[in-house]
Specification:
mainly alpha
Length: 118
């Protein structure tokens, strides 16, 4: 396979993973819903995710998103209370977003200074 095509497929899959995360979080935050609405929404979003080719990503952030996707599908099948559903989804999404922010650029020099002060 052409290297550019592989890169394109990989970046498309990464974008779709992040869109899945954002769509689910927005759905949970923005309104009142019941289990049927949640199941329909997850099926719809899952269909969009399945439209692109799955690629193995060796990145902690994207692996966490894939685990989040598996968790949302599992929650769809359990029929839990809405508040429990919201708290689990938001908790996991916040951990994922925190992990992404944590990996932001910091120079090694500053990391060493912070560790010495502690």
């Amino acid at each position: 396979m052409d290297k550019r095509k592989e890169k394109y497929i990989q970046s498309r899959y990464k974008r779709e993973l992040e869109r899945y995360l954002n769509r689910v979080v927005n759905f949970v935050m923005n309104g009142e819903f019941d289990n049927e609405d949640y199941v329909k929404f997850i099926d719809k979003v899952q269909e969009k995710l399945n439209s692109c080719d799955k690629v193995k990503l060796y990145n902690d952030y994207f692996e966490k998103i894939e685990k989040f996707i598996a968790m949302t599908v599992e929650l769809k099948e359990k029929n839990q209370e809405i508040e429990d559903l919201k708290t689990k989804i938001m908790h996991e999404a916040n951990l994922i977003r925190k992990a992404k922010r944590k990996k932001s650029y910091t120079r090694k020099r500053y990391k060493n200074i912070e560790n010495e002060e502690i």
